[in-house]
Design goal:
The complex is a heterodimer of chains A (200) and B (188).
Chain A (H helix, E strand, L loop, with lengths): L1 E4 L6 H12 L7 E4 L12 E3 L6 H6 L2 E4 L3 H10 L3 E3 L9 H11 L4 E2 L6 H6 L13 H11 L10 H10 L4 E2 L1 H4 L21
Parallel strand pairs in A: 1-2, 1-4, 2-3, 4-5, 5-6
Chain B lengths: L2 E8 L2 H13 L4 E7 L15 E6 L10 H22 L3 E5 L4 H11 L3 E4 L10 H8 L5 E4 L10 E3 L5 H7 L2 H8 L7
Parallel strand pairs in B: 1-2, 1-4, 2-3, 4-5, 5-6, 6-7
The chains are: A alpha/beta (200), B alpha/beta (188).
Chain lengths: 200, 188
Amino acid sequence: MIFVTVGTIHFDDLVRGVDKAVGAGRIHDDVILQIGCGGAYLPHFCRYIHNAPTLEAFERSADLVIGHGGTGTTIEVLQLGKPLISVSNPGLSDNHQHEFLEALEAIGLVTYCRNIDDLPTLIAAPPRAMQLPAAGSPLAHEIAARIAGLNHRRHVQHPALTRMASLLLRGAELEVSAVLRPVSPPALPTELLIEPAGHA
Amino acid sequence: MRKRICVVGLGAGGFHYALERLIGEMPGDFDLVLVYAMRSQAQHNWRSGAPVHRAYAVRSPSVTGDWWLTSMWWSLVAFWRALAILVTTQPDCLLSVGSALAVPFGAAARVMRVPLFFVESMTRIKAPSRTGRLIQRLCLARRHYVQWPTLENDSGLTYAGAVSRGLHAVNDCAQLQQQIFGFERRDR
């Protein structure tokens, strides 16, 4: 299975390119597309989802992941040890993913697809899977050390100030239980999958 | 006493993932206040062992396609909401990776004298993002980290490795730096 993800923002060119290549028989594998929100193109030949709380289950099940060059997807897929082809989304600010993918391509971590028409050729000869270590960030330890050195600064709150704050935050508070998800790897959320428009 | 960290800018792909990784790997005893940048993404997607005190959703001042006046308006809204969150939850510090929400929250944190730790996005290799430049220019962050040594400079941008260890090794790869940037990391 090939899993194609565009991240939180839509990337119609990639979705259309893969879908048409599947329709034209240039890609023979089972393809699942994650198409994000706000895009105008809906797939005609591939099953798809818009978004999911986490895409990890799809990435785990895939033999090959085609990503949009986002850092979350890129690092997560590399840590799962799955082969990754990345296409940058030029619509994002400064086209910054191009720079990021060029850097990762230079050291062989990803295959950078600069032209969506080349995707079927790259899929036919999939890249070697690379694996990054799952843990051990020196940056996390540096920040934790800085935070540990801070003085505690909790004060008694003034009731009027607290009332004003709760007025300003009306509608902004979320249920904590609604944002937490289990630490164990999630199961494939097949209920989110939508059949393609051209499906008989 | 347990430290409280206000985590700013969750919900949007890479920033969320990076924050989850950072918090997941930070040693120490702390609880969290989560601030999401997009409400639609704030459903069952935070996975870290640290206890969560409260969670909020604040609209990001910079959403793709926004007109500059719209961004200004939402920056103001985010600033007032940030003040209210800081008053209500009284965190010891703020932590953000890349998110535009860090600007109004950083300004509110300056008013409330709460330190902000800001980490530049991993995709920024040659120049900081617009958010990063604003935070640097307005001196909003107590520490401003970058994830590539090419961005480290004497005016406050600190390189202390990347969010992911594998990429930390990659970032230190002198061959890569010479290949792409014609740059050789100086010894510190």
